[in-house]
Design a protein that fits this description.
50% of the residues lie in helices and 10% in strands. By secondary structure, it is an alpha+beta fold. It has 4 domains: 1-153, Beta Polymerase, domain 2; 154-239, Hydrophobic Seed Protein (Orthogonal Bundle); 245-404, no CATH class; 408-459. Strands 3-4-5-2-1-8-9 form a 7-stranded mixed beta sheet. The protein has a two-stranded antiparallel sheet with strand order 6-7. The longest helix has 24 residues, at 377-400. It starts with 15 loop residues before the first helix and ends in a 9-residue tail after the last helix.
């Protein structure tokens, strides 16, 4: 009997059934597999989006069968047995039954095709993803490894021995905790044990693939459980050693908060914005290198500076785009700024804060709020009030001046024309001077800008035109 939740996948006016009939007419079976089946059974109707299929047909035959039906065909994954198809705005992937394995020292899987569906399903990552739906001539659920039971129990278990599954593709070790984060499922003990034993094998996986799994894990609804799994299994040490280092040894005299537990809690308190949560993950990575003990206890002076540097290094290692590295590192560097202004926000301080945060302003305020994990309600309220006051001051100043585009009333060309100088360091010094005045005092006129510029030039012994 087919569960009612699968019925939307079996509609004649959908994409799956007409495609399966096309394959059947060509002498090949076509099965819907993977996340779309799993998510439909879980009622996660908006989660899957794309559709994944498995077939005995080889890639060349797949291309022939979809020709004339697909809007576009992509062959970039054909070396791994996958043909991509775009139809009515929906992405489909059709993969030949396979049993892929990695060489011991290889970053790329060696694709070996298999002849039957059950062998293909046995080589999938987890039983909940090793479910297949036969579409024609009649719908049939195929579950050779108990995935339906595990789905009901919320259990992540490998179809075969986890040592085989993780040997086939070491990235599955990280994917285990990605599904903990995204689905809220529990990782089977034998799977976690295999991760502990085999975690060093992650080294053969490319940084790009690891990065993509981390990105999916970090936005999961159950991200805290996923991160704890990565740390406690030892896997974090293989690709994110800065996270493991946050489990600081407690000093018997100077008791202080577990930085790792705090960090994971902060990530969980952030909305599922990938850049914001990555910043939360890295925001305290500078603490181990800056920890010191004094009469008042433990301190982490300038940990935001060290943390921003470590963030850039780790994100480069994971092959993140430059703009994302700068955004996350910028949030790490600025996350303590509001705490330095406990006496209130002057106009000058607000302008500088907005200027330094730039497009990161909203995320920065959210990070600062999420960073408050203290159990002391008085301290928590004090920080919340500080950020509330900051946002109120920003709103007021935005009404009074162009706060989001803070610049002097004249540009570098005007400076050069006024002083009769060519491009060079002097122009930069003059523009910095004019910008500082704008930050300190707010908007001012072009006339005032030229007056300030004249006084500065005279002090430097530069020839300047007379007044007027």
């Amino acid at each position: 009997m087919i569960p009612a939740r699968l019925e939307p996948l079996l509609r004649d006016d959908g994409l799956a059934v007409p495609l399966a009939r096309r394959f059947a007419a060509g002498g090949h079976g076509l099965f819907l597999v993977g996340g779309s089946v799993r998510d439909a059974l879980l009622g996660r109707t908006g989660a899957a989006g794309d559709l994944d299929f498995a077939t005995a047909a080889r890639p060349a035959e797949v291309r022939r069968l979809v020709s004339g039906w697909a809007d576009e065909v992509y062959t970039v994954g054909e070396a791994f047995g996958t043909v991509g198809v775009l139809k009515d705005g929906v992405k489909l992937e059709i993969t030949t039954f396979r049993a892929e394995v990695y060489r011991n020292d290889s970053r790329k899987p060696v694709v070996q095709y298999s002849e039957d569906l059950e062998t293909d399903l046995s080589r999938r990552d987890f039983t909940v993803n090793a479910l297949a739906l036969r579409l024609v001539p009649a719908p049939e659920m195929i579950d050779p490894y108990g995935g339906l039971v595990d789905l009901g129990a919320g259990l992540l278990r490998t179809p075969l021995d986890p040592g085989i599954a993780f040997e086939d593709d070491p990235l599955r070790m990280l994917r285990l905790f990605r599904f903990v984060s995204v689905l809220g499922f529990r990782a089977a003990e034998e799977a976690v044990g295999a991760v502990r034993a085999m975690r060093e094998r992650l080294a053969i996986v490319s940084a790009e693939r690891i990065r993509d799994e981390l990105d999916k894990l970090i936005v999961g609804e159950h991200v805290e459980a996923g991160l704890w799994g990565v740390v406690e299994s030892g896997l974090a040490g293989e690709f994110l050693p800065e996270l493991t280092a946050l489990r600081l040894q407690q000093d018997p005299i100077h008791q202080h908060k577990d930085v790792l537990a705090h960090t994971i809690a902060v990530v969980g308190r952030c909305r599922p914005d990938r850049i914001l949560r990555l910043a939360a993950l890295f925001h305290d990575v500078g603490k181990p290198d800056t920890r010191s003990f004094g009469p008042e206890g433990v301190a982490f002076h300038h940990h935001e500076v060290v943390g921003a540097r470590l963030t850039r290094h780790r994100m480069r290692e994971l092959r993140y785009p430059k703009e994302e590295i700068e955004a996350v590192a910028g949030l790490v560097y600025l996350h303590l700024r509001p705490h330095t202004l406990k006496m209130g926000w002057t106009d000058r301080a607000v302008r500088r804060y907005v200027r330094d945060a730039g497009p990161l302003l909203e995320r920065l305020n959210l990070l600062v709020r999420a960073d408050v994990t203290t159990r002391d309600p008085k301290k928590a309220r004090a920080v919340e009030r500080r950020i509330d006051e900051l946002e109120e001051r920003i709103a007021v100043l935005r009404e009074q001046e162009e706060l989001d585009s803070i610049r002097p009333p004249i540009d570098g060309h005007a400076v050069m024309a006024f002083l009769g100088i060519k491009p060079g360091p002097l122009v930069g010094e003059a523009m910095d001077l004019l910008l500082e005045r704008r930050l300190d005092e707010g908007p001012y006129s072009e006339e005032e800008a030229y007056r300030v510029l004249r006084e500065w030039a005279e002090g430097r012994g530069l020839p300047v035109p007379g007044p007027g």
